[in-house]
Write a structure and sequence with these properties.
It contains 13 helices and 9 strands. It is of the alpha/beta class.
Length: 296
């Protein structure tokens, strides 16, 4: 037969709330000790970093969900809204991002992952008239036999004009509104593994005839990526922001994206790649401007 108290047991009534407070404090002490901010964590938590961009930020969002402590508190990741197949996807529109950026301080960091897939849209699918070019960024990669040679400057002009379009306008608006340091992050390099690309790829490339025409040779895609990064670095200096390179740890000896950092599609990095991006941006926030910039 269980015992049921109809009133407070003798001895506890006199202790009242003091006893409850002491018991609660005793139980809470380990938790308080564990989660009490240290001086270093308080200092780190003052760093504010905003990552904003398009589809490349999805991997960063997944990586951030696994982050703990001050990093998760100091960093915000926002995907810009866009209309896709009649549905609005993303977190904030450009006006909302600009408003958010305008409140940031000079020692904060804004890292843009805007656009980035121009070289893939231009050259992932093999063109019916096979082309190649003499690359100034990768002079070690000679044009392939049997390919028409396109003048380097003509290709550079195409990329410059394209990057100055919608992507460039968005970067310029963010840069103009910000007192914080603004970076545009270079896209991940191309993937060498063609089987991965053919197995799963974005609708854009299927519509361009990927399955019918095949994939442009890897070294040409690598040269197109290097050209885009070079043009982007030049434009960033013109726009008043800086450029961050793709993380070195994710690039193999030839210059391609390593398989262990490749997303499950034709163009993007995976969560591990997003983890490297987070470390890169937080390093910029911690050490200040200039130490990770790329001079193209």
């Amino acid at each position: 037969m269980s015992t049921r108290f109809r009133r407070v047991p003798r001895g506890l009534a006199s202790r009242g709330s003091d006893w409850l407070l002491q018991a609660s404090a005793k139980r809470a002490a380990p938790l308080l000790t564990r989660y009490m901010p240290t001086p270093s964590s308080i200092e780190t938590s003052r760093i504010r970093a905003l990552i904003v961009g398009d589809s490349h930020v999805d991997a960063i969002k997944r990586a951030l969900k696994r982050s703990r402590g001050t990093e998760a508190q100091a960093l915000q990741v926002v995907r810009l809204q866009k209309l896709k197949n009649g549905t609005v996807i993303g977190d904030l529109d450009l006006d909302e991002v600009v408003a958010r950026v305008s409140t940031m301080q000079p020692d904060d960091v804004v890292a843009c992952f805007i656009g980035g897939n121009q070289f893939n849209a231009f050259g992932l699918v093999q063109h019916p008239r096979k082309f190649d070019f003499h690359s100034r960024e990768r002079p070690d990669l000679a044009p392939l036999p049997g390919h028409e040679i396109v003048p380097y400057q003509a290709l550079r002009d195409v990329f410059s004009s394209g990057l100055r379009g919608n992507d460039g306008k968005r970067i310029c608006r963010i840069t103009a509104a910000s007192r914080a340091r603004v970076y545009q992050v270079a896209p991940p390099p191309p993937k060498l593994n063609e089987a991965r690309i053919l197995q799963r790829h974005e609708t854009l490339f299927r519509e361009k005839g990927l399955l019918e025409h095949g994939i442009t040779p890897a070294q040409i895609r690598l040269k197109l990526w290097a050209l885009q990064v070079s043009v982007l670095g030049e434009l960033c200096r013109e726009w008043g922001c800086s450029m961050l390179p793709a993380p070195e740890q994710a690039i193999d000896a030839q210059g391609f994206l390593k398989d262990e950092y490749a997303g499950d599609d034709a163009t993007h990095g995976n969560e591990s790649y997003g983890r490297l991006n987070i470390e890169q941006v937080m390093s910029c926030a911690a050490i200040g401007r200039g130490q990770q910039e790329v001079q193209a």
